[in-house]
Design a protein that fits this description.
nine-stranded mixed beta sheet, single chain, alpha/beta
Length: 233
Amino acid sequence: MSKKRIILKLSGEFFKSADNCVDIDKAFELAKEIVKIRKQYQLGLVFGGGNIFRGLEASARGMDRSTADYMGMLATVINGMALQDALERKGAFTRVQTAIAMEALAEPYIRRRAIRHLEKGRIVILAGGTGNPYFTTDTTAALRAIELGAEVILKATKVDGIYSADPKKNKNAKRFTKLRYIEVLKKGLKVMDATAISLCMDNDLPIVVFDLMKHGNIRRVVTGENIGTTVSK
């Protein structure tokens, strides 16, 4: 029986250090959780880069949007390399593939090669976004998951699911356990951007949003425990 193939989408904010770069201790902490499940599942990882640089914020302050987005893509490569080192020190086999060619650091993203790595039990770190400006890393996660035949996207966040409003600002915010794609789009819920949600809806790819900050939640969500919020048809 083939192993379940998963795309784990990680926010760059998780890696944020006091100096707005990469917290190496958090990288090792995350690696420790991931290696516990690597033998049971085929894992692809997609990162944000917000702990280092946010293209949209820089664009809002006057920077050319394309330039800002490319800088954000490079930030995801830094996060990917940090986690690669942490994973390999824990005994995992990994490959970093980037959408922007940088052969001295990583392989170029090639779909068939990525699939082969997954089949061989390597954790594939998919960095550099889609390689195009104006697309988020949420869209990258959806695109790569569809290309690679993943069964689900696990979106790790700092909250325990999708809420009707920001739970930090509104104490009456309601947490959803299940949602349909169209409900997420109609309600304007900010779990993923509309392009990513639409891609998942068109390809019937489920999304599970869960709290990464709670120890052991990665294992719980991949083994099917009812945590977080599931978005499906």
